[in-house]
Write a structure and sequence with these properties.
mainly beta, Immunoglobulin-like
């Protein structure tokens, strides 16, 4: 997957000191990466997790990090007997970073991963690297590797279980009655206006709209609530500047509230 530099990256660099290269800044003194074992599941997959432990006050980013964040990227290509890797993201926090909104985790991130082996009779080796960013007064882009043969006999891991319990509610769990997306052209791309019929998630709600296509970038959304309806708007552009089509079934909307988060997959025509 290719990382796209967003137009807001210039604002981020202007507001923060983005350091380079990470190794010279002592990344290993700021963050530690390890693989946790959770044993085999009832359906034959392996449950594991990547745990990032950050120095006090430092934070790292969610898959959609906002205008002031650095999106993580995973390379599993060095792994052995891995057919599929499914990631469960715990609900993130919203931060104000020099006037820009960022979305991520502070002090620690436990990222559950469920691995489907190619051959159930053979061991699974999880080997690869994670590209990510960590920020405090400065932002450091970094890369750390991992290499761990998963323990099929490991028992239930309470740290992984706690991270899985922190996932956002599904649309049905949160009582979402409907989600529609109205599309309209803009000078640079397309605006999505999402209307979500759902009970409040608590406090000031933040809606993150992901277009579902890694070649497309969505701006920071603006959200407002009118009774049972949350309205969120964002602009989507293609980094190459080329025309594009948007598949509503691939749009993903995450509502972050003070009480809980909600993960909505797809929206109807609106």
């Amino acid at each position: 997957m290719k990382t796209l530099w967003k137009p807001a990256a210039a604002a981020m660099i202007a507001g923060l000191s983005l350091t380079a290269p990470a190794g010279a800044q002592g990344l290993d003194q700021l963050v530690q990466l390890e693989v946790l074992d959770g044993g085999k599941t009832a359906n034959g997959t392996y449950q594991g997790a990547l745990r990032l432990t950050l120095k006090d006050g430092w934070k790292t980013y969610w898959r959609a990090p906002g205008d002031a964040g650095i999106p993580p990227h995973f390379d599993w290509s060095g792994s052995g007997n891995v057919g599929d890797v499914s990631i469960t993201w715990p609900a993130p926090h919203v931060f104000d970073q020099n006037g820009l909104r960022s979305i991520g985790y502070e002090d620690q991130l436990v990222l559950p991963v469920e691995i489907t082996p190619k051959n159930p009779a053979k061991p699974v080796r999880l080997r690869g690297q994670m590209d990510f960013g960590v920020c405090k007064d400065v932002c450091i882009p970094g890369q750390l590797g991992f290499d761990h043969t998963l323990n099929a006999q490991a028992g239930r891991n309470p740290t992984i279980a706690a991270a899985l319990a922190q996932r956002p509610f599904s649309a049905s769990e949160a009582g979402v009655a409907g989600a529609s997306c109205h599309l309209s052209p803009t000078q640079d791309g397309m605006q999505i206006e999402a209307r979500i019929t759902m009970p409040p998630a608590g406090g000031t709600e933040v809606a993150v709209i992901e277009p579902g296509n890694p070649a497309l970038w969505a701006s920071q959304s603006q959200a407002e609530r009118h009774g049972d309806t949350l309205i969120a708007r964002t602009e989507v552009i293609n980094a190459s500047g080329a025309p594009f089509a948007l598949d509503r079934s691939e749009v993903r909307i995450t509502v972050l509230g003070a009480s809980h988060a909600v993960d909505i997959h797809g929206c109807s025509a609106g």
